[in-house]
Amino acid sequence: MSGMMKYLSRHYDDLLEALLEHLELVVVTLVFSLLIAAVLTVAAVYSRRAGEYMIQAFSVLYSVPSLALFALLIPVTGLGKTTAEIVLIAYNQYLLLRNFISGLYQVDPAVIEAAEGMGMRRLQVLWKVRLPLSKKAFFTGIQLAVVSTIGIATIAAMINAGGLGTILFDGLRTLNIYKIIAGSVLSAGLALVINGVFKAVEKRI
Amino acid sequence: MSVPAIEFRDVSKKFNGSGYYAVDHVSFSVEEGEFITILGSSGCGKTTLLKMVNRLYEPEAGKIFLFGEDTSGLDVVKLRRRIGYVIQQTGLFPHMTIEENVATVPKLLKWDKEKTKERVRELLKMVELDPEEFCGRYPSQLSGGQQQRVGLARALAVEPKIMLLDEPFGAVDAITRIGLQEELLRLHGGLKKTFLLVTHDIHEAFKLGTKVMIMNEGKICQFDTPQNIIRNPADGFTAALIRSAREQEKLWEGYV
């Protein structure tokens, strides 16, 4: 135990840096994921079939293990953050679109028909009716995407993307038990804390 | 003779992948101020016919005119904002208050806020709901009959000349339905609008309609005043319909 304390007191700045790096990776990924998912979701409103195809395509991509996807992209985008972010964004599309699109189509058809029958334009139906009535599904999609990004970003340390995974993998390579504990507790803890925050917010909407 | 409020010229509609016509080469015209009820069993094409008026469905062939204007040439959104539309499941927006629901079309037309507010109160009074009590409530806090009153008020908001009602009272209990029917007759009498109401209830059709349109398998069997239809049913289907209604009446006679 005293060894652990000693490690923490000596390396807290490394840990903090890794944590911030990890968060940065998550935030950048999330911002781009949401932008792309928003565009694709609007496209799906205009063509339901396009939406179904997109979900299918991203579900195939999602089933490929992250390490394999990283490896496939290294020749193109090299080692580092960019490759990690591309893969994370692609994974998130599945989680986000599946929830967003199915949420939009779960709205009572009678309500949609009334909205259209009264003369709302398609984007008005989306904005004034479909979106407010499916915000729970949107929230769930974002929650899943964030938690999954935190987890997979840890693995991205393998390709020099930085973050908490660096500590963990360093520890594994040098058989340093303190690093292993610090890395895994922090990445798991981060996921749990963020998930808890989402749960708390969810109760309010 | 004046220009008819609604005119169908040889209108047909077939749905994708279906071998038969949902509406089969139908022509008729409706004068302004009439209350037309469209009666038929499910699948006869009555709802399809109604939804072609506000172009929720596009006809496959033929033309539809409203006050002499070919609807296929109009902007569909503008067209719909001019037509009141009421459906069975009410279609009230569950996330909006009653006030916001009734204000939907005025808002789409960017009415002044004060004018909209005033109009909403007027409309709620018109359908006999107290504005003080109901404005701030949500649809789920209302009974089925009250929800349908709100649906009516919402459809009437910008004084449409034509009202389309798709089995508006199909989901409310018998006593509430009678009340709503009376209400609708009163509204129609006071407003001089053209009403088109779809129903599968023969009593409702004959009670409400100044003219009744009887439909079967996509075609109009008869389109006439209730009295003329009862006196001279045009075909076997219509005659059978009237007979069945009479049979039902007999059920009560024994208990008087």
TrEMBL record, chain A:
One of the record's GO cellular component terms: plasma membrane
Family per record: Belongs to the binding-protein-dependent transport system permease family.
Entry's transmembrane regions: 25-47, 53-74, 137-157, 177-198
Protein name stated in the entry: Osmoprotectant transport system permease protein
Keywords noted in UniProt: Membrane, Transmembrane, Transmembrane helix, Transport
GO annotation, biological process: glycine betaine transport; transmembrane transport
Keyword Transmembrane helix in annotation: yes
Xref: SUPFAM superfamilies: MetI-like
Pfam families: BPD_transp_1
Domain ABC transmembrane type-1 as annotated: residue spans: 19-198
Membrane topology: Multi-pass membrane protein
Location relative to the cell: Cell membrane; Membrane
TrEMBL record, chain B:
Domain ABC transporter: 6-242
ATP-binding as UniProt keyword: yes
Organism: Faecalicatena orotica
InterPro entries from the UniProt entry: AAA+_ATPase, ABC_transporter-like_ATP-bd, ABC_transporter-like_CS, P-loop_NTPase
Molecular function terms, GO-annotated: ABC-type quaternary ammonium compound transporting activity; ATP binding; ATP hydrolysis activity
The protein, known as: ABC-type quaternary amine transporter
Gene3D superfamilies: P-loop containing nucleotide triphosphate hydrolases
Assigned protein family: Belongs to the ABC transporter superfamily.
Pfam families recorded: ABC_tran (PF00005)
Listed SUPFAM superfamilies: P-loop containing nucleoside triphosphate hydrolases (SSF52540)
EC number: 7.6.2.9
Keywords, alphabetical: ATP-binding, Nucleotide-binding, Transport
